[in-house]
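Hey, I was hoping to borrow your eyes for a little while. I'm sending you its amino acid sequence along with the backbone structure tokens. Take your time with it, there's no hurry, and the full record follows here.
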Amino acid sequence: MRRFHGGDIYSFNKNIVDFSSNINPLGIKEEIISEIMNSIYNIGVYPDTKCSELRYAISKKEGVDSDFIVCGNGAAELIFNIVLAIKPKTALFTAPTFSEYEHAVDIFSMDKKYYTLKEKNNFDVREDIIDYIDVDTDIVFVCNPNNPTGRRVRKELILKILRKCEEVNAFAVIDECFMDFVYGGEKYSSINYINDYDNFIILKAFTKMYALPGLRLGYAVCKNKSVIEKIYLSRQPWNVSSIAQKAGTAALRDADFTKKTVEYILCEKEYIQKEFKRLGLKYFKSDANFILFKAEREFDKKILELGFLIRNCGDYRGLNEEYYRIAVKSHNDNINLIKAMEILLKKL
């Protein structure tokens, strides 16, 4: 069965501009490319299955013990590893959200519950999610900021979720793969709660911020060493290549790159949202590097004819084919997309 995600450029003409994949528009740092090129000469040696050097670099960035960290072949792999390690019977998801949480649970035929995000509330997670976390809940997945809505969950509410999960003996998995794009994201991250809860896992990835989707690299952070060990044992051996490990280590050496990216995204996001308002498109203000908006059905197919691939969100639980997501890209790409949208909207 096909899974729908952004970035499927392989099914279309190569000349399209891909707005369906939420990757840093500033691209790959030269230092990372140099590290990748140099590491090519070591592909005749098995990679470090413990990712020791990379975990040390992550521990310095996140301010946590390296023993709390396990690396994976992208955050997506770790979602499946976490489910396999914990073996929950019932999972709670927000809807809409990233589909791989549910796919992981489906493999193990677990029961599912949904907290529906409402358009009238701008798809925000609200206090009443606490009522959905009960003694029958084993694991809770929260994407923060959420994909595809781009909405950030208040840190105070995350703390309440963690406390309720601890009370009912459930695990909380907070996916912060897009938190690095949030303006002031270091204030909103839940990483400083890691030392306080044994039932708390944070997911992060190098994919988006460092423009490395083809290398596949992510990590999970959890204080519970027993859980970390189970996640580690559930992986395939050598799941993170030596090239990916070197690239990830190099990526973490330049904190200014993240700051520069956040400022760029903020500026471009304001431009796009201003233009959407001018065009009369309903959109939802985003904390991340992408924007959810509404248009008529098959808008994606029509804009594709003009050379732009956008994400149809009709396959997200809780949405339909009138919802679309676009990434924030370079200024020129953003201008050209707006021009194409304006042409298309005048024809409709």
